[in-house]
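ping. complex inputs:
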Amino acid sequence: AQSVTQLDSQVPVFEEAPVELRCNYSSSVSVYLFWYVQYPNQGLQLLLKYLSGSTLVESINGFEAEFNKSQTSFHLRKPSVHISDTAEYFCAVSVNDYKLSFGAGTTVTVRA
Amino acid sequence: NAGVTQTPKFQVLKTGQSMTLQCAQDMNHNSMYWYRQDPGMGLRLIYYSASEGTTDKGEVPNGYNVSRLNKREFSLRLESAAPSQTSVYFCASSRYSNQPQHFGDGTRLSIL
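pong. complex structure:
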């Protein structure tokens, strides 16, 4: 079974500063990778996904993530955050089946 | 678009009581899932239904049962609630297994 490690549980960041959320997974076979975002008192929303093809994937609101097979990582980045990016972010991995394994989450708090 | 609808949004139960959490999706998705979310643990899969008429256990099925009533609806039942089942429960659906999942807003359940 695969496991997902999000290396930071809390990331405070100032508005307009860059942010990187780290995600590593353990699997020796091909994987599908996802980042989800959860705003307070809401469900999870898909932010971006890697299924195949280009290892750099982007979301419509400025986030990007790069799949690194050799390092088994899928780190999430944004060059300039906004107050509205305050949320909890979850990395998830699926290995050729229905099951998503989630990391424990990273809480991003953006301050003015 | 409603997407995935969960009812109720909040519930308080006494130990030993039974309860059914309802979930319905209007996206014509084949696969549906139930997760629980606990602080610092991410989301853990309780049960899933890959397609109408099938259900299977996930990572933490003990104390729960599910029913895939039809393609739209997937309910989660607690037969005899325990304090350890205090959690936020999320229902999700996807077009097929291994496709990105869409989440409801959650049911916040407290067992006293």
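The mean pLDDT of chain B is 93.
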